[in-house]
């Protein structure tokens, strides 16, 4: 571990690993995020009563625009793109609103709201980021990273148990598959060397998948039914409709998405012992909003940064944006070929859950490191941390506590990320003192605790 707090980096931001190794590392990123990304389409489609053909199309569009957005995010396109190793995909943040609005008013209203809210909200935040940046010190962004990891843990546990609603939820078979993936991934990362350590998560998923096939729990029927090639159809669900309530609802959720993206970018650059630059923040937020709006025109749900892939970056020490660009290319190809995409989605939930459980913990740990590197754990900052995480975890575990609020407000405050971020923003702004660095840059780091027993509240 270098002295500046950065992790041991195997490949830096602009490094290009050998072709075969880079391809395998890219596949590893895809393997970790493809199931939850496509799960959003399955869940929303089920809630709105979509046909089997429509479900397949929604999954295809999620993969296609996740890939395109990842390519733009990693390689850049003018002012759009952070040029950081950020994998883009459809977030569970949008599931509740998309399901409720889609069931009541149709998917055309959902996509119309996303088209407007994405480009306006995240475009405005990115454009004015210079003014907004002071409200996102490392203490705040670190807390956002922590809560993203922590609230992914229950999701990971549900997957590890077989998926919510599964008849065999919590069975020994599911727990065994998840445990196998987790054990192999951790063991190879801690004791392996070279490419074995770098591909530890992929090897764990592959071993779990082979075991699942041997147990007869992998269903290949959807692969045979899927077409080889299919192109996007912008009129699939009709002309987008623009409902004010739906637009405002998604505007709130894009604020959540922006905070997640800020946190994820901070989690990635924390591996180098630094915070993202203004240009990186701005380009990342532009990608979130613009690609979500473009995708909505073709029937894709909003895309945002994927937190579990931030965990992979920190877990493997591979920061190369070109590796993640390969993952984006793979996702785009999967989106053009429903048959190949169907093959990827045959990965059982339990296999995927073992990997995500590890990644969620790594994301939370990277957030703790970001805070520890940049802020003292004094009384002021401990209060900010305690209140922000308490509210965020509280609403994550007991969302029904806000059931008496007006519907629009309930949608807003029941998002753990936004509640944690807003709490941290407000407390950090009004609390006396500042979120001070560990030590002044002009001074040497302290060698030990102060000789007095008092608490420094400065």
Question: What characteristics describe this protein?
Answer:
mainly alpha, 19 helices, transport, 2 strands, UacT-like, about 65% helix, cell membrane, about 0% strand, globular, two-stranded antiparallel ribbon, about 450 residues
Helix content: 55-70%
SSE class? mainly alpha
Radius of gyration: 21 Å
Query: What is the molecular shape?
Result: globular
Largest sheet: 2 strands, antiparallel
What count of helical segments does DSSP give?
19
Q: Output the strand order for the largest sheet.
A: 1-2
SSE run: HHEHHHHHHHHHHEHHHHHHH
Distance between the termini: 29 Å
Detailed description of the structure:
The model is unreliable at 436-458 (pLDDT under 50). 66% of the residues lie in helices and 1% in strands. It has helices at 19-48, 52-75, 95-105, 107-127, 129-132, 138-160, 172-191, 195-198, 200-215, 221-225, 244-269, 278-296, 307-316, 321-336, 338-344, 349-374, 379-397, 407-413, 416-430; strands at 88-90, 303-305. Strands 1-2 form a two-stranded antiparallel ribbon. It contains 19 helices and 2 strands. The longest helix is centred in the N-terminal third of the chain and has 30 residues, at 19-48. Helix 2 (52-75) runs antiparallel to helix 14 and helix 4 (107-127) crosses helix 11. By secondary structure, it is an all-alpha fold.
């Amino acid at each position: 571990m270098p002295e500046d707090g950065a992790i041991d980096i195997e490949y830096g931001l602009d490094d290009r690993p050998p072709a075969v190794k880079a391809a395998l590392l890219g596949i590893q990123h895809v393997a970790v995020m493809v199931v939850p990304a496509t799960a959003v389409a399955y869940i929303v489609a089920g809630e709105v009563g979509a046909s089997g053909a429509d479900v397949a199309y929604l999954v295809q569009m999620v993969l296609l625009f996740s890939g395109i957005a990842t390519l733009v995010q990693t390689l850049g396109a003018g002012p759009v793109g952070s040029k950081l190793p950020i994998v883009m995909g459809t977030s569970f943040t949008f599931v509740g609103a998309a399901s409720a609005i889609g069931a009541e008013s149709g998917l055309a209203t959902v996509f119309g709201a996303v088209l407007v809210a994405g480009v306006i909200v995240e475009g405005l935040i990115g454009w004015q980021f210079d003014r907004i940046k002071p409200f996102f010190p490392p203490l705040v962004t670190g807390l956002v990273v922590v809560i993203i990891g922590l609230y992914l843990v229950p999701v990971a546990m549900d997957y590890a148990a077989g998926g919510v609603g599964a008849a065999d939820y919590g069975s020994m078979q599911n727990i065994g598959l998840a445990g196998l993936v987790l054990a192999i991934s951790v063991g190879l990362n801690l004791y392996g060397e070279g490419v074995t350590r770098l591909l530890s998560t992929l090897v764990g998923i592959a071993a779990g998948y082979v075991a699942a096939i041997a147990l007869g729990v992998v269903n290949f029927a959807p692969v045979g039914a899927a077409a080889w090639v299919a192109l996007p159809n912008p009129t699939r669900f009709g002309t987008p409709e623009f409902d004010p309530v739906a637009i405002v609802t998604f505007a709130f959720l894009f604020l959540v998405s922006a905070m997640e993206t800020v946190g994820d970018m901070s989690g990635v650059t924390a591996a180098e012992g630094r915070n993202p630059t203004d240009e990186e923040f701005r380009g990342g937020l532009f990608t979130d909003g613009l690609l979500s709006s473009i995708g909505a025109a073709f029937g894709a749900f909003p895309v945002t940064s994927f937190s579990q892939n931030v965990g992979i970056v920190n877990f493997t020490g591979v920061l190369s944006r070109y590796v993640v660009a390969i993952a984006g290319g793979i996702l785009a190809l999967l989106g053009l070929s429903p048959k190949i995409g169907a093959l990827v989605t045959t990965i059982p939930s339990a296999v995927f859950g073992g990997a995500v459980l590890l990644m969620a913990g790594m994301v939370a740990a990277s957030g703790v490191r970001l805070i520890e590197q940049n802020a003292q754990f004094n009384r002021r900052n401990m209060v900010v941390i305690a209140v922000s995480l308490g509210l965020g975890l509280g609403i994550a575990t007991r969302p029904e506590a806000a059931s008496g609020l007006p519907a629009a407000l309930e949608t807003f405050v029941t998002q753990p990320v936004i509640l944690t971020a807003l709490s941290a923003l407000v407390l950090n702004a009004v609390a006396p003192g500042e979120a001070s660095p560990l030590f002044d840059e002009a001074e040497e780091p302290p060698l030990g605790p102060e000789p007095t027993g008092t608490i420094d509240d400065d």
